[in-house]
Sequence to fold (486 residues):
Amino acid sequence: MDREFHDRQTRRDFLTSAASGLGGVALTAMLQEQLPASSSQALRVRSPHFTPSAKRCIFIFMAGGPSHVDLFDPKPILNERDGQQLPDSLLKEVEFAFIKKEEAKLKGSPARFRPRGECGTEFSDMIPQIGGCADDIALVRTMYGEQFNHHPGQLLLSCGKAEMGRPTLGSWLVYGLGSESENLPGYVVLSAGRGASGGSSNWSSGFLPSTYQGVSFRGKGDPILYLSNPAGVHPVNQRAALDAIGQLNAIRYQQVQDPEIASRIEQYELAFRMQSAAPELTDLSGETRRTLEAYGVDRASPRPTASMQGGDTYHRFSTNCLLARRLVERGVRFVNIVHASWDQHGDLKHDLAWNCQMADQPVAALLRDLKSRGMLEETLVVWASEFGRTPLGQGDDGRDHHPFAFSIWMAGGGVQGGMVHGQTDEIGWAPVRDAVHINDFQATLLHLFGLDHERLTANYRGLGVRLTNLQGQVVHQLMNNSQADV
Fold:
């Protein structure tokens, strides 16, 4: 039937038909012009509010809560008081996820800390290679939040508020600045391990159009399922089908004015362009053997415990760190490396060491690689989690959730390397100087990208909603001189 139809078509039919000829091309162009600029050109590069120091972000999200007192915040007095009861004054208004208050006893750290780099920042011997990058790192030891369970804590870190349906940090950056990559998403997620408790809510676009959501790349095969054409589908035929679908979607948009239809049109087009860009991205054959070895791409995972995810986790995490560099090289605005889990309620000695061995080499390699290529100055690298771990012990060998004080670090992108911000008390329980709320951290990150967190808003139900949830102060002390004065 289709063949007979095409055989009967005249030259006049082809030129004038709105459905299958040049009229269709004209219709699509006309309708595209009528789509809202914020949707039809959602990923176009936009100017920041002021001159930025960072243009790209690699956000290493260590879901579960790495123990700050074992990795980043040395507490010799905690070791001296190992096994002692926590004072009642600290327990009075505290909630724990699992620890019973009457059983709360301090737990020292077996880790050894020593000064690293010219700056002398102390890092744990469990992450020696990251410690070797101390002169490029701004370490914040006084992060805090209000959420002591994983999913709410991850929402607070990602969305600015422990509330479902809000845009995540990467979505806000792409919404505010667009993306420099034409053939890849502006926001890419690379995961290893068993997955974060919050799942895809950690990279959702919330009430923003879905164009701004994080696109999760797989570790094996096609980066995205069904990205490749089935056997026998010619690109010319696929292009014709996409044009027809685009015309139908554009007509429907004119009828209902739903911005998600505009997002759908863009996503079809981006997927078509990705068919050539994504395979090249994940083909590591062009990387030198020295680079692959530096990242530890071919490492085997050591024996995990029942609470860990073994298999090829070491390989996948190392590959993700290398892919993150390749993605930002290609103009992707925000790359989220997600690994879970650091939730060591038990088997702390083994499982924390297992995770540190997984992360230490490739994360340090990423920092050195970016620096050697001249990319670190404009690429902000962040290591963060939803909270830390208690200075208290849980069971025989574990620590509970601790949002009252924990550590994160940043490097590159206008950050002042070789510094420590803030100080916690003698056991690492709470800040005593220069506390940084999660919203303060978010405001600071946006500032590095030239965005005023109070001006970066989106209309939602008649309100100008922002990432930092009506609070947040920029921590200028974390920035180098050129950015701190902005």
